[in-house]
Records
---
Amino acid sequence: MNAVARYLSHFVSLIFPELCVACHSSLVSGEDLLCTDCRYNLPYTNFHQQPDNIVAQQFWGKLPVQAAYALYYFNKGGKVQQLLHHFKYDGQHRIGNIVGEIAGSQLAESEMFRSADYIIPVPLHKKRLKERGYNQSACFAHGLAKKLKAEVELNNLVRTKATKTQTHKSRFARFENMQQVFAITHPDRLINKHVLLVDDVTTTGSTLEACGIELLKVPGLKLSIATIAYAV
């Protein structure tokens, strides 16, 4: 960048400063989407160091999950909610890559997560994907893959029908809403593989459970789960 371009860039940033997607403070040179304070001080769960964490417990007796994890705690009105709102609804798809790399660095410390062969994002229905322009879970998956050296497997787990929003539904209603929604298109690719299934937020776990049930129909498949946040 030449001197004139740098001057113009600094001038524009004074008038229209870039803001942190979590706390909305002004970013300084070298910061990208997240300010340094948020990168280090968002509410990390450290679940990669706790095999029997709350996310893993959600699937006990429901899915034979090898390991489960969420990067952050999600509190209503908190910074993680702001981050995810920008990620899902404001077109800030690069947030997924950034938090995926942060999560991937943590999971690379875990022998269980390091053994993943494929990372599979929870799919969006094609109508929703067209509306949003990207699958936020796939963005997260690509960020994870950079650190875990695993392959992102797209279009193998597919959503066969659109569903109504899960917001305000009970756990049972959420589970019912997700029945017979997902399918595997190329099960042969996943035989005897370790799959890391990823999504943006874990609430009741109904969507992940429905995906996991379908994936575990594949012979020899081992399943682990990772999300950006766990809703407290």
---
Amino acid sequence: MTNQQSRVNNIPLFSQTITDYWREKFLNGDVLYSDEVFTVAINPDLDEDSRVMVLETIDGRIMAVLTPAMADKVGLYQQQDLSEEIFRRKLKEAGVTLHGADYVYYFSEADKNVLLQGNLEGDLRRLTEQDDVVFSEFESSASEQDLDDAFVEMDHWAVFGSFEQNRLVCAASMYPWENDTQIADLGVLTLTPFRGKGYARKVVRSICKYAYDQGYEPQYRCQLDNHASTLLAKAAGLTLFGKWDVISPDSTD
């Protein structure tokens, strides 16, 4: 294990499942360059939609990984003197654009224990097939943009909802992040008239507790400029892990 691998593995607060997942993503290939701040690796096993990725963790370290074809396109080679600034400039010069970073949040080990030991509050529960009509009414009360941004679906692995006077006003859903990982990615949506009343916080904590009971680590992502979503993550007890970016679907090859 390299020093950089050890650092990633030892980022404080987070579970081994999380740190192992990201370490494998970014350091499971041939390391082209590494210093105290920046590391670049080449991995031929990356999926097409993640053939360039960048992760900046909360300790200020930045990792990038590319497929061999993308490394050739960008002009990266062994023993090259690199920095994040040089790397991003090379991407731009090669016509490679990134999608736009997401914040990625998880529960710290300490906050996970608080969640698991606490009692969940409010009129909320797991939704089932019997709630299809209720969920359809919920969707019809939300804008298309909110539905697209939240990606809350009844056919996901788990769906939880919060009610006011028998009306579904907030819902969250989860699905396994990748087939071979124990991470569950979540989305949450509160109807506009009911925002700011704590519904989303309770639903997020409820579905995350369920995920832990099923052996999964909850994962919460949002765009950097989604301030309401970042506030919700913190209110729900989640901790920022880092900023993660992937190649844009519109990027040239």
---
Amino acid sequence: MTLTEVTPAPPTLLDVDDLRLEVRGPVLAAGDDGLAAEVATWNTAVTHTPAVAVGAVCAADVVAAVRFATAHGLPVAVQATGHGPVRNADGAVLVTTSRMQGVRIDPERRTARVEAGVKWQTVLAAAAGHGLVGLCGSSSDVGVVGYTLGGGVGPLGRRFGFAADSVLSFEIVTADGGLRTVTADSDPELFWAVRGGKGNLGIVTALEFRLHAVPALVGGGFFFAGRDAAAVLHAFREWAPTLPEEASTSVAVLRLPPLEELPPPLRGQTVVHLRFLYAGDDPEAGAALVAPVQAAGEVLLGGVGPMPPTALDAVHMDPTDPMPSWEKGVLLDDLTAETVDALLAAAGPGVEVPLVMVEVRQLGGAMGRPAPVPNAVTGRSAPWSLFVLGPMVPGLTEVVPQVGRGVLAALAPWTTPGALVNFLGDVSDPDEVLAAWEPEARERLLAVKRAVDPGDVFSGGHAFRSSGA
């Protein structure tokens, strides 16, 4: 060790007390009452045990937390809603941003500025009154920032692109403890990398992005009887590629629990769920687009119709209550008759597997083209996404990942390199995260990481190392 090198000392209770004096929000150390509630996740399969949790209420709190972490040699993780945790932030400084709820809509510029804890449901409601919409995902309960930094694939994506493509600027706290406002002009490389690089480069405390004029929205879905899965899935694979970019769709094999809150036709059943949204200028023509696949099987429940942007959750009907789950996604380069047959053989209604969902989602459209201002979003060349979700309940925690990976392996002949970062799910190591990007983008990301976080301070979630593979 040279004379200029100093080994950081682990924090003491006095150090944590000093941090409390700097931070407006709550600061909780291991063993403190309220820590578990502060760091609770929506995906309850992951339980965080950080050394310190900082409940940030402003960017200055985030700056203080990062400086504290680096002074004591601790890694940093961040969480807003807890929807996307993939590993325990054990021993880290975990910054929770759920209290950062600022939202500003500029109807003339058609932009929104949101702070780090804002959920999409807040943005959709605020923008709808101005005839505008943001590029949310399948659930508006998800946080805007984390979703967008991972790319952001939603029901409006084929029409308007990835959510990250609409970002105009962001504020970010980097590993040096500095708060920067970043645009395409101020720091082109960091602007490129953060939009798609998830949380690898720092903690984004605010995001400004473009809103879009709301066309006529027609959407919803159909639940088909499980016995018609083959007919529906084969109809889907032939029908979806014929859709215009104004339409987006996905189809999923769902195994639903026997819960009383579910409609009787679905309760305890394995069904096929077709999801559909048309965002164009001819709602009548949009609604008619679903006819070919609607006729492929017995419809147990559902329909499509006009909907406001605030009702977009009705397309995918994602669960609303926290649950323990294992998830994993891959990209497909084709959806052939053989692909569908392989999916049905591995996870169709006639197969006993402990999975909740196996989904095929159509990509392409505006998501298949370069962003107006290039970014690090990966997955643009793939026409399809395959996503598997299983319950991590007692007795299944070892089985579900094994079965889920088995389903993905069965589709390997049609898998293409890369991944949607938000759909990476369970990863074995940082190198698997890096593999989501093509080699040229990977090296560019690593160069930015080495420039702004050479010590790998930001190591939570889907993190990669500055040293690379």
